[in-house]
Design brief:
The protein is built from 4 helices and 19 strands. It has about 280 residues and is α+β, with helices and mostly antiparallel strands. The protein has a 5-stranded mixed β-sheet with strand order 2-9-8-4-5, with no helix packed on it. Strands 13, 14, 16, 17 and 18 form a 5-stranded antiparallel β-sheet that branches. Helix 2 packs across helix 4. InterPro entries: Ig-like_dom (IPR007110), Ig-like_dom_sf (IPR036179), Ig-like_fold (IPR013783), Ig_Fc_receptor (IPR050488), Ig_sub (IPR003599).
């Protein structure tokens, strides 16, 4: 009986601690490096617009500043546009809601040089193909370039771009490129994540529950959480009354000698005890 009450308590704590609001920060153009003077747009792709997502960043000069109110960017809802990005804008960017949760973090590098490496700004999935582009600010982007990983030369490409096919965790690292006569790009870290594994059949449009949709998913989940939270209180009350009744009787030893074959009879006796307590109080 005590184990059952503890189990319900653990379930209740898990439900109360869950977070339903999530967001993902995206960058356009999709790159982790930019030339000084470029236009950059950041956006919070959100599951719940009522959470009030805003763009924040940490740089070498400022910590946890907000787009549109702390001297950088122009905020528009859950988006932020930087019309002319400076080298001092290099730093870590993320989305943050009024309720506290934050999104993924993105590291942007702004250079005053003449060469950048365009690489994925978000983590890449294991098994996908990834293309790296070495480009200059004033000349065409198809110049021959050398690509490096963790300081070691990978290969030289005559067209200025390199594709890594079927990336794996071993491809994770710090990448940069070099164009002869123009210079070297800053370094950017490429993260590789594993593909999620499932043991059940994939969900298709034919068996997808019709109630799960982006506009109403968060509201529905909150309603379910409230219903499940209320139900354990009712069950816990019945269990505690029954536990108290058995304790008052001195823990009848016949309870411990009972086998699983008469489990149903004991359950009925528990409810009879609850009824007796209720009758005694009424009298």
């Amino acid at each position: 009986m005590k184990k059952t009450c503890l189990l319900w308590l653990l379930i209740l704590i898990s439900l109360l601690s869950c977070t339903t609001n999530q967001a993902r920060l995206t960058v356009s153009p999709s790159s982790s490096q930019f030339f000084e003077g470029d236009f950059v747009s950041l956006s919070c792709e959100e599951d719940d617009s009522s959470a009030g997502w805003t763009l924040r960043r940490n740089t070498s000069k400022q910590q946890r500043t907000q787009c549109g109110t702390d001297g950088w960017g122009e905020g528009a809802g859950s988006s932020c546009n930087i019309s002319y990005i400076f080298t001092l804008d290099s730093g870590v960017y993320w989305c943050e809601s009024r309720e506290g949760p934050i999104s993924n973090m993105v590291n942007l590098t702004v250079t005053g040089g003449s060469v950048i490496l365009q690489s994925p700004v978000l983590p890449v999935m294991e098994g996908d193909d990834v293309t790296l582009l070495c480009k200059t600010k004033t000349t065409p982007s198809n110049l021959p370039a050398a690509f490096y990983k963790d300081g070691s030369l990978i290969r030289k490409q005559p067209t200025g771009h390199m594709t890594i096919q079927h990336v794996s965790r071993s491809d994770e690292g710090l990448y940069k490129c070099d164009i002869s006569g123009h210079g070297e790009s800053p370094s950017s870290w490429i993260t590789v994540t594993g593909r999620p594994t499932t043991t059940t059949s994939p969900i298709t449009s034919s068996n997808m529950p019709p109630t799960i949709s982006l506009p109403s998913y968060s509201t529905t989940l909150r309603l379910v959480c409230h219903l499940v939270v209320i139900y354990p209180y009712f069950i816990s009350t019945l269990l505690m009354v029954s536990l108290y009744r058995h304790s008052a009787k001195g823990n009848d030893p016949t309870i411990f000698l009972a086998t699983e074959t008469n489990a149903d009879e004991r359950l009925c006796e528990d409810y009879d005890d609850i009824a007796e307590v209720t009758t005694e109080h009424q009298l």
